[in-house]
Amino acid sequence: MAVYSISSITVKNWDIYKEYMEKVPAIIEKHGGKYLVRGGEILSDDTSWGPQRIVILEFPNIEQMKAFRDSEEYKPVAALRHKAADSEGFVVMGHDQ
Fold first, then answer.
1. Cα 81 to chain center, whole Å?
2. Percentage of residues in the chain with pLDDT exceeding 90?
3. 26: part of which helix (H) or strand (E)?
4. If you ran DSSP here, which 8-state letter would residue 82 be given?
5. What integer pLDDT is reported at residue 50 of this predicted model?
6. Secondary structure letter of residue 14 according to DSSP
7. How many degrees, rounded to 5, is the angle at CA 28 between CA 4 and CA 75?
8. Can you tell me the distance from the alpha carbon of 37 to that of 16, in angstroms, rounded to the nearest whole number?
9. DSSP codes of every residue in 29-81
10. What is the dihedral of CA 33, 43, 47, 82, to 10 degrees?
């Protein structure tokens, strides 16, 4: 069952965040993940929530998502993200069709 990681990101240091953005896609792909949304224009509807940047990742299953997040390869790259941005997120389980 597919699983989705949805994150709201506030970038504090674009130079460091750009380095993160260059390094992370290959690691995500290696673990079966892919971007569904990576930035892009945010169109507001009837809400007071005003995120600056949204990222949505899809993985085939929760095990592959956890393998990505826990990988030794991702740890130094994640440190770049933590240094460059504040983020909030959650995981949503997909459903069988």
1. 10
2. 82
3. helix 14-30
4. H
5. 81
6. H
7. 105
8. 20
9. HHTT-EEEEES-PPPP-S-S---SEEEEEEESSHHHHHHHHH-TTTHHHHHHH
10. 40
Domains and CATH numbers, the chain: 3-42+52-87 (3.30.70.100)
Under DSSP, the state recorded for 11 is: E
Tell me the residue type at 1. Answer: M
Count Cβ atoms within 10 A of the Cβ of residue 87 and give its class: 0-12 exposed, 13-18 middle, 19 or more buried: middle
**Mean pLDDT along residues 22-43:** 94
What whole-number distance in Å separates Cα of residue 59 and Cα of residue 27?
A: 12
Burial class (CB in 10 A: 0-12, 13-18, 19+), 4: middle
Q: The pTM is what?
A: 0.89
